[in-house]
Specification:
The protein is of the alpha+beta class and 503 residues long. It contains twelve helices and 23 strands. The strands form five sheets. Strands 3-2-1-4-5-6 form a six-stranded mixed beta sheet, sandwiched between helices. A five-stranded mixed beta sheet has the order 8-15-14-10-12, with no helix packed on it. Strands 7-9-13-11 form a four-stranded antiparallel beta sheet, with no helix packed on it.
């Protein structure tokens, strides 16, 4: 579509304001931690990516027949652009009038502007076949397998006026429709931008728009063409950046080493290797955390955020898995539970805003994870420890029994008199050994109660030496009495029963 003069003027002003807008974006980016467009262009080194420039230069005689030498003016306008092309760029200069005539086609190298010297010294063509010139440009950018950005620049001062033998004179609209279909196929695999620069007020640069989707038609005085072409170079730098980023694999992989781990009663450390798959775009992984499923473990990671640069695409972080106690106790063997440990994080890039806004590519932060199989294993109480504890307990019981038995001494003779209230005569129990129960067959009398007699040795309260003292455990009429009987001293129980120990 041909733009009106007013709209074209507005577009020129917008292009002239582009550097200040880029500067503002860069300042805003510094506040948010995101890089600006100039920084991204430097980081991508866009001058190392070749681009195709196809320049269609009208050399019909009308370029020099008028009051002004448009031929010289157009060459002067092109010179700064061609002189500042990257050495790896490919330039295709085609002079056209009756037919397209390739003047130069190859890598620019160090002398892009010098190619203009290969144009004819004078513009002397008798016809202007713009359609054939566009077809020649299309044949160049149709080169199979080429995905680099391409720019087609058309400079003319006239209308489509092909010679009689031209395809575009015979077929007309059909020839342009065929070129449009070919251009669509090319534009699916590479960026193609077309610029139509009319050098007079009445030209057919609009034919460029009928072939290529991304076409800008400018209505500029010849003196302003050079300034506009400077903006073209900036635009191509963005297209190169877009091509670089679109080919890059913007992702991160995480691999845990070892891939399988058994955690017993001590913490275990793993190494996680984070690797960027991007060859040119710096990446970040933030919010790193350990998630554990199916097993009683807790995990921590250090550090929690890493940056991955194309010059150093791999970083390591350390994961610490700490065991939690297993419930219950058991004897012998091991108890194990299996599960997984995952290191998760969010992939982002400090160039994300530029990629989205300036390059027109979609890049959104997305999660990434690396997984290792884990097992929590704990050993029960060993069988030997249970056996040892049982033997120790048996020995302790035996020791206490022996100690208790050694506490009681042999009575070695004598007797115990038991005089019960209301009894006719005291009961007389002979004493021997460490324990005696009464009444017994060798006793005499009619005691109503029963009991047990034991003896202990103690120091005498008066004088020196030791003496045996009887401990009587006596039960009568449903009540129990404990009585301590020193030698030859009658002792009364609570129910009135009197005990006398006669050694």
């Amino acid at each position: 579509m041909v733009l009106s003069r007013t709209l074209r003027s507005v577009l020129i002003l917008c292009l002239l304001a582009l550097p200040s807008a880029v500067g503002a974006q860069a300042r805003a980016a510094s506040v948010t931690g995101q890089a600006g467009l100039p920084e991204v262009l430097r980081g991508l080194r866009v001058d190392t990516l070749p681009a195709d420039y196809v320049v269609l230069f009208d050399v019909s005689s009308s370029m020099q027949d008028g009051p002004r030498d448009l031929y010289a003016a157009a060459r002067a306008a092109l010179r700064p652009l061609l002189g500042e092309l990257a050495p790896v760029d490919r330039l295709h200069l085609i002079a056209f009038a009756e037919r397209p005539d390739p003047v130069f086609s190859g890598v620019v190298g160090a002398g892009g502007a010098g190619v203009l010297n290969r144009l004819p010294p004078r513009a002397e063509g008798r016809k202007t076949d713009i359609g054939a010139a566009i077809d020649a440009a299309l044949r160049i950018i149709e080169e199979p397998g080429n995905t680099d950005p391409a720019t087609v620049i058309l400079l003319t001062d006239g209308l489509q006026d092909p010679p009689a033998d031209s395809t575009f004179a015979r077929s007309g609209r059909a020839a342009f429709d065929a070129m449009r279909r070919r251009a669509r196929a090319v534009e699916e695999r590479r960026s193609v931008r077309a610029l139509g620069l009319p050098l007079t007020g009445r030209t057919d640069v609009r034919l460029l728009d009928e072939v290529f989707d991304d076409t800008v038609l400018m209505d500029l005085p010849p003196g302003q063409v050079g300034a506009y072409l400077d903006r073209v170079r900036d635009r191509i730098a963005v297209e190169k950046a877009r091509a670089y980023v679109s080919r890059d694999a913007l992702d991160v992989t995480i691999a845990l080493e070892p891939a399988s781990v058994v955690v017993r009663d001590e913490p275990v450390e793993l190494v996680a290797r984070l690797r960027s798959t991007a060859a040119r775009v710096p990446m970040t992984v933030s919010g790193l955390a350990v998630e554990v499923d199916g097993v009683r473990l807790t995990g921590t990671v250090t550090p929690a955020e890493v940056g991955l640069d194309p010059s150093a695409p791999e970083r390591q972080v350390r994961i610490r898995l700490e065991p939690q106690a297993l419930s219950g106790r058991w004897v012998g063997g091991e108890r194990s539970t299996g599960g997984t440990a995952r290191l998760v994080g969010t992939v982002d890039s400090p160039w994300r805003d530029v990629i989205d806004r300036d390059l027109g590519l979609e890049f959104a932060p997305h999660p990434v994870a690396g997984t290792a199989s884990t097992s929590r294993t704990a050993t029960g109480i060993p069988v030997w420890l249970v056996v040892l504890a049982g033997l120790a307990l048996a020995a302790l019981v035996a020791f206490l029994v022996v100690l208790l038995r050694r506490r009681w001494k042999s009575m070695g003779g004598g007797h115990l008199l038991v005089a019960e209230p209301g009894g006719v005569a005291p009961y007389r129990q002979l004493l021997s050994g460490r324990r005696v129960r009464f009444p017994a067959a060798q006793g005499r009398g009619g005691a109503q109660g029963t009991g047990t007699v034991r003896a202990r040795r103690r120091r005498r309260a008066v004088g020196g030496g030791t003496e045996l003292v009887l401990h009587v455990d006596f039960r009568r009429a449903g009540r129990r009495h404990r009585v301590l009987c020193p030698p030859r001293q009658p002792v009364s129980a609570a129910d009135g029963t009197i005990f006398t120990y006669q050694p």
